[in-house]
Q: What sequence folds into this?
């Protein structure tokens, strides 16, 4: 694989790091990135446009004591990098100064999986053709399907990380995704359906994912929702189908286990390592090495190798997630969770692929053992206040469970709960498993993540519908 | 910058329409924590977006660089991409329509001269003041100063040549109140065009009050009630309605307002206008994202739907001119159609008077899950809320871990009153207290 976009000489990186440290910094880092992306958008039966994007530049940070100085530039020449290094150094300046030499050692990384077909090697016409197939399949799903939107998107991101600890490393990250949304219309108004698989692979995604299947699934969902009755209002048992509910853990405890939020006393999980924070049925991991998943990489955006990190074991909190700065302060190793949206941003502690391990129960039996509740098949995202633990997530396909049987669909609604309470209220975990692709937002930065879980049940959560419970 | 945009547009080949958008910004951001500067970022961002229309097909490319080789590659990519779009006779670039732009005072040169040390001091002072505002404040989750100066230029083969520039700065803090196991949070902020105009006292007071008044909050029981949306919350709801007022959503059958022109869609005392010529609005600008002079557009008048927000393409599809409502997310995207300064005409009562007049209900201080629980196509919404119960015309106990749900269509018809407390907020829509009857509250 060529590295043409990031041809920065090791000696230049070394000099830039030395320049960054001249005001007395304890730590300096160069993060360079060259990202090419392409997308194609279909809407209203037409391919509206293809878009090509190029983002190339470097972010330089200098840490001195508790202060981080940061600057970025799109100029990757030595002058450009030194100007950014100067700006970052001034921002983090202290009394000291002096000259520090940095000796770099190149670190090789193990790729979590192979990428077979680079998106830039695929003809644009083939990308456009996927969308036409999706449009056709969705419209064939039923006359009530009134509108179809489909987007194909790929990105090829090369990163280089070097720091004053002597690290020099690079990675190549390829992601491909297809998103289909449908509008169906009936006598209850309009409803929508969405399906959007994505993997950290190239165009071989479409060896396993058929755009027509994705489109039919989005259309089925919109049509199903036309039959939906108002969601109940009040506290009910909630069964989450495998894959759908991973976002619950992402919000209920994932963010609260990020060491930066813990460190600023903004997490309900602070000082709780070693304690029982969830039902004994819960085993939670964050795994950046999970082959092909949306949140996977060889190294994070600070050059640390991705890891599989156990967070909760049999309900007991075992660890938080860490980035370089927070780990350094705590005198331990980063867990490979330092990520950033682009070279414009400072890294933070972020999740990768966060999931609950499968349990032992038969998923069908979990439903049968639920006299009155709701069954969630697809969720649309969520939000948490880590300081209070209160979180919400939206259901985009869900059904009532009555006398142990799935009955009619219910309309979209948010569910609300408190992280520590909901984790304790998980009373059944199935033996199946699936994952979900999403984008996680934190402090204005979006990064690709996945979440996953087996079918499971929360004994009681508040469902925010408009009908009686 | 305009010269650069013009130079690229001039490279159009015969039969091609080319539009070039060049953007540049300088930003600084200071975050403080526990009396120290946690991070100081300083950044220049620049980029170009090129749209090519040829033979009735459109292609687009962007790059976060203005270097010659990258710009040339971007134009070539956009041109190549145009070969793969579907032929659409309505595609076309904006052409000057004779409307003169209004003068808006959006750029203050003082910001560039404001010393870095003062920015750091402001952030530190903000954190200190929030902590000191109330003995029940346990900590400050974040305290931040940020500013930005941005410029853009558009040049096209259609004869558009425009430039805009603006400055803005903000302070924002999030307070944590409570002892032992209880924590409540509250956010306060202030935005201005120049640091001298930032209202530190208000940011501090809002952060501290919003956090402390939530102490002791409990989950309420489910019921139907009247809700009072605080101005920032009302602004978020207006933002949801805005997507249905975009002609782009209407044409594509994704608007709950489609086919309802000249029908009553709201209570008769509601008039909704998008006016990017309003000097106080944060989204105001002399030109829209295709370079046409901004203008005032009445969308709902006395409850009756009057029109939609059009860009050049949606106008052509509907057989009418653009009403200068093209919007874009900088140089990385093609223009859509949407609002920049949406507001409903304010009423004449303060929030206190509205509470007193209505008697009972829930004052909604914050909402969560707007992106996951509100569907602008179907109109269904269900969002997490926290706030204060209203009893006998005054605020009473705080509540949390609850949701409110209804539909956007019903909300417009169940509106009981509009407050006179209009605030222009960042995010494209103004906020003012809105009183809505018969909303479902879900709790225990």
A:
């Amino acid at each position: 694989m060529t590295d043409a976009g990031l041809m920065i000489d090791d000696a230049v990186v070394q000099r830039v790091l030395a320049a960054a440290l001249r005001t007395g910094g304890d730590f300096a880092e160069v993060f360079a990135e060259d990202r090419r992306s392409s997308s194609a958008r279909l809407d209203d039966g037409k391919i509206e446009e293809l878009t090509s994007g190029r983002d190339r530049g470097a972010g330089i940070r200098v840490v001195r004591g508790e202060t981080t100085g940061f600057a970025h530039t799109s100029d990757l020449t030595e002058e450009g990098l030194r100007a950014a290094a100067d700006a970052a150094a001034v921002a983090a300046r202290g009394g000291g100064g002096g000259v520090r030499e940095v000796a770099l050692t190149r670190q090789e990384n193990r790729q979590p999986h192979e990428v077979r077909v680079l998106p830039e090697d695929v003809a644009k016409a083939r990308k456009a053709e996927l969308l036409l197939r999706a449009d056709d399949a969705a419209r064939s799903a039923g006359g009530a399907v009134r509108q179809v939107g489909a987007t194909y998107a790929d990105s090829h991101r090369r990163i280089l990380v070097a720091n004053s600890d002597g690290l020099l490393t690079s990675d190549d990250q390829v992601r491909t995704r297809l998103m289909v949304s449908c509008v169906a219309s009936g006598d209850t108004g309009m409803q929508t359906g969405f399906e959007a698989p994505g993997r950290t692979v190239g165009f071989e995604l479409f060896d396993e994912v058929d755009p027509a299947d994705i489109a039919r699934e989005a259309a089925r969902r919109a049509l199903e929702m036309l039959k939906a009755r108002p969601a109940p209002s009040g506290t009910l048992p909630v069964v989450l189908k495998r894959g759908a509910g991973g976002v619950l853990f992402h919000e209920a405890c994932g963010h609260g286990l990020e060491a930066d939020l813990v460190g600023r006393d903004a997490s309900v999980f602070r000082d709780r390592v070693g304690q029982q924070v969830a039902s004994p049925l819960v085993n939670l991991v964050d795994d950046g090495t999970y082959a092909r998943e949306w949140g996977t990489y060889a190294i994070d955006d600070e050059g640390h190798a991705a890891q599989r990190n156990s967070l909760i074991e049999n309900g007991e909190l075992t660890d938080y997630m860490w980035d370089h700065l927070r780990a350094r302060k705590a005198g331990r190793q980063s867990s490979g969770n330092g990520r950033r949206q682009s070279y414009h941003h400072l890294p933070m502690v972020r999740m990768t692929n966060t999931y609950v391990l499968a349990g032992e129960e038969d998923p069908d039996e979990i439903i049968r053992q639920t006299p009155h509740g709701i069954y969630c098949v697809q969720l649309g995202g969520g939000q948490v206040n880590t300081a209070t633990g209160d979180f919400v997530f939206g259901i985009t396909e869900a059904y009532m469970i009555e006398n142990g049987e799935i009955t009619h669909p219910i309309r979209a609604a948010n569910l609300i709960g408190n992280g520590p309470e909901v984790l304790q209220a998980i009373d059944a975990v199935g033996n199946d498993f699936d994952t979900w692709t999403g984008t996680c937002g934190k402090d204005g930065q979006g990064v690709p993540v996945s979440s996953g879980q087996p079918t499971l049940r929360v004994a009681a959560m508040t469902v925010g519908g408009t009908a009686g419970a | 910058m305009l010269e650069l945009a013009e130079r690229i547009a001039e490279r159009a080949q015969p039969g091609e329409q080319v539009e070039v958008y060049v953007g540049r910004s300088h930003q600084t951001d200071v975050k403080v924590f526990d009396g120290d500067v946690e991070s100081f970022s300083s950044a220049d961002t620049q980029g170009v977006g090129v749209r090519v229309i040829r033979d009735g097909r459109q292609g687009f490319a962007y790059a976060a660089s203005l270097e010659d080789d990258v710009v040339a590659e971007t134009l070539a990519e956009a041109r190549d991409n145009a070969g793969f779009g579907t032929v659409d006779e309505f595609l076309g670039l904006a052409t000057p329509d004779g409307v003169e732009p209004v003068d808006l005072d959006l750029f203050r040169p003082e910001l560039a001269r404001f010393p870095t040390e003062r920015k750091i001091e402001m952030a530190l002072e903000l954190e200190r003041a929030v902590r000191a505002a109330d003995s029940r404040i346990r900590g400050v989750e974040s305290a931040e100063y940020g500013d930005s100066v941005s410029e853009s230029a558009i040049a096209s083969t259609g004869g558009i040549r425009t430039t805009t520039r603006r400055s803005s700065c903000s302070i924002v803090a999030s307070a944590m109140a409570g002892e032992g196991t209880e924590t409540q949070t509250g956010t306060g902020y202030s935005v201005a065009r120049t640091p001298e105009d930032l209202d530190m006292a208000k940011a501090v007071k809002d952060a501290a009050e919003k956090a402390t008044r939530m102490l002791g909050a409990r989950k309420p029981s489910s019921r139907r009630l009247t809700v009072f949306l605080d101005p920032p919350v009302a602004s978020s709801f207006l933002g949801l309605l805005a997507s249905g007022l975009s002609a782009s959503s209407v044409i594509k059958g994704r608007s709950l307002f489609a086919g309802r022109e000249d029908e009553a869609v709201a209570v008769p005392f509601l008039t909704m206008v998008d006016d990017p010529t309003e000097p106080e609005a944060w989204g105001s600008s002399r030109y829209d994202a295709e370079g046409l002079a901004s203008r005032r557009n009445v969308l709902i008048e006395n409850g009756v739907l009057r029109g939609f927000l059009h860009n050049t393409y949606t106008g052509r599809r509907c057989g009418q001119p653009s009403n200068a409502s093209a919007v874009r997310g900088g140089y990385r995207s093609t223009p859509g159609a949407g609002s920049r300064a949406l507001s409903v005409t304010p009423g004449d009562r303060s929030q206190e008077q509205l509470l007193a007049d209505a008697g009972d209900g829930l004052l909604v201080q914050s909402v969560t899950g707007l992106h996951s629980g509100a569907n602008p196509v179907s109109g269904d919404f269900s969002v997490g809320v926290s706030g204060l119960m209203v009893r006998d015309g005054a605020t009473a106990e705080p509540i949390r871990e609850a949701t409110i749900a209804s539909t956007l269509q019903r909300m417009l018809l169940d509106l009981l009153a509009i407050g006179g407390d209009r605030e222009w907020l960042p995010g494209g829509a103004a906020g003012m207290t809105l009183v809505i009857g018969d909303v479902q509250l879900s709790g225990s």
Notes: DSSP finds eleven helices and 20 strands in chain B.
